[in-house]
Amino acid sequence: MPEHTEVDPKEIQEKFAALKAEVGKVLVGQDAALHRLMLGLLCGGHVLLEGVPGLAKTLMVRTLAQAVDATFSRIQFTPDMLPGDVTGTQVFNPREGTYSIKKGPIFGNLVLADEINRAPAKVQAALLEAMQEGQVTLGEQTLKLPEPFLVLATENPIEQEGTYPLPEAQLDRFMLKVVIGYPSREEEIKVIDRMTNAGSLPQAKPVITPQELLAARQATEAVFVDDKVKAYVVDLVTATRDPAAAGLDSMVPLIENGASVRASINLVKVAKAHALLQGRTYVTPHDVKTIAPDLLRHRLVLTYEAEAQGKTADDIVRFVLDNVEVP
User: Fold this and answer.
1) For residues 88 and 104, what is the distance between their CA atoms, to the nearest angstrom?
2) Which three-class secondary structure state does DSSP give residue 110?
3) DSSP 12-56
4) Cα–chain-centroid distance for residue 108?
5) Residue 203: Cβ-neighbour burial (10 angstroms; 0-12, 13-18, 19+)
6) pLDDT number for residue 317
7) Are strands 141-144 and 135-138 parallel, antiparallel or unpaired?
8) Which of 71, 77, 117, 186 could form a disulfide with 155 if both were Cys (CB 3.0 to 4.6 A apart)?
9) How far apart are CA 169 and CA 257, in angstroms?
10) Contact between 52 and 156 (Cβ < 8 Å)
11) Strand, coil or helix: what is 60?
């Protein structure tokens, strides 16, 4: 970790604005998704991107890695993968009678886990253990993963054949779940122009170093959060666990399990990062409300009754945000 130094919030805001602009040379639109990826970078939190194929999820992550001047690994998950395909393995040298370590693609700064829901349970567990612990054990050796280390996973929500949906406990390891939507008509025309013109496609250039990113993370931790805002965060999260106590009786038959304590912790962390990117050193309730859907949607388990009524996790989160009192 870098030594603690005072970092001007405006300087961080400008640095990340430059990062966003550099990625924008390649990527068209998707501003909200890109902003949340940058929040993940600032917090050191893993991000799950959900969207149908062809919405530039992979391009977004690869371009972001280029602009951060970080090492980038891509893992394309398939049903026949083994844990060693992710973490690496020990290789036996028969001449010397010794084992050597062959590191897997998990040893990168930004790791794209493409179509994570295509991987079987053991592979998902190997990846998520590395995400949680920041290390990999191969034989008798425990190897630390590089810093910064961020897993950006994608999944396709519409295809069910040959997929293994992530269990709720594993989903909880992702700080944010970002839903990628279709571009607007104007944005899609820009995409066509950019991708079909003669000549090479644009490439992002490095605008921020891993060391600068780690320094920005330290500045994020120093952002002030008032006790009233902390109480508001807890009120939001506990309303998903016990809606009756929060006066949300209509939600009782719709929620089977609410968000964990990890959700409260991460909601404060991401709100700090969001405030910093706005050039502030303090968190407001608006920061919390802005990023709460991306932080809570994958942490709720809905009942069959909710499915029967056509209610989604986003509907529940929106109702909670609208009805829990803001300080």
Assistant:
1) 4
2) strand
3) HHHHHHHHHHHHHTT--S-HHHHHHHHHHHHHT--EEEE--TTSS
4) 16
5) exposed
6) 92
7) antiparallel
8) 117
9) 11
10) yes
11) helix
Q: What is the mean pLDDT of each run of 10 residues along the chain (327 residues)?
A: 55 86 81 88 89 78 85 88 86 78 87 86 83 83 86 78 72 88 83 74 83 87 92 94 88 89 93 91 93 92 89 91 89
Do 233 and 271 touch, CB atoms closer than 8 A?
A: yes
The per-residue pLDDT for 198 is 61
pTM: 0.85
Q: Which two tokens stand for residue 209?
A: 């170093």
Question: How many whole angstroms separate alpha carbon 280 and alpha carbon 287?
Answer: 11
Mind listing the domains of the chain with CATH numbers? 9-196+208-212 (3.40.50.300), 223-323 (1.10.8.80)
Q: H helices of 57-134, where?
A: 57-68, 84-87, 121-133
